Amino acid sequence: MFTQEMISAIFLIAVLFLVLPSFLSTNNRLKQFMKNISIWAVIVVIIVVIINLI
User: Fold this and answer.
1) Structural contact between residues 38 and 3, judged by C-beta atoms closer than 8 angstroms
2) Quick check: 34 and 23 in contact, CB under 8 A?
3) Of all residues in the chain, what percent are helix, strand and coil, respectively (each to 5)?
């Protein structure tokens, strides 16, 4: 079980490293940045919930 959680965490961190540079460069206003970060937070929460249910 611990190995599966580690693989999931590594996957999420890898996706973060791939997306983060372009995400930061396109979000130059605070309002737009907060909107996009909340969308990403919801996506990550959904993925974590799905992984824990399986």
Assistant:
1) no
2) no
3) 90, 0, 10
Q: Which domain holds residue 8?
A: 2-53
Q: Tens digits of per-residue pLDDT, 1-32?
A: 678 888 888 888 998 899 888 877 877 788 88
Tokens coding 10: 């590594």
* Contact by Cβ (8 Å): 51, 8: yes
- Biggest alpha carbon distance in the chain? 41
Give me the mean pLDDT over the 23-46 stretch: 86
* Cβ–Cβ < 8 Å for 33, 27: yes
Domain count across the chain: 1
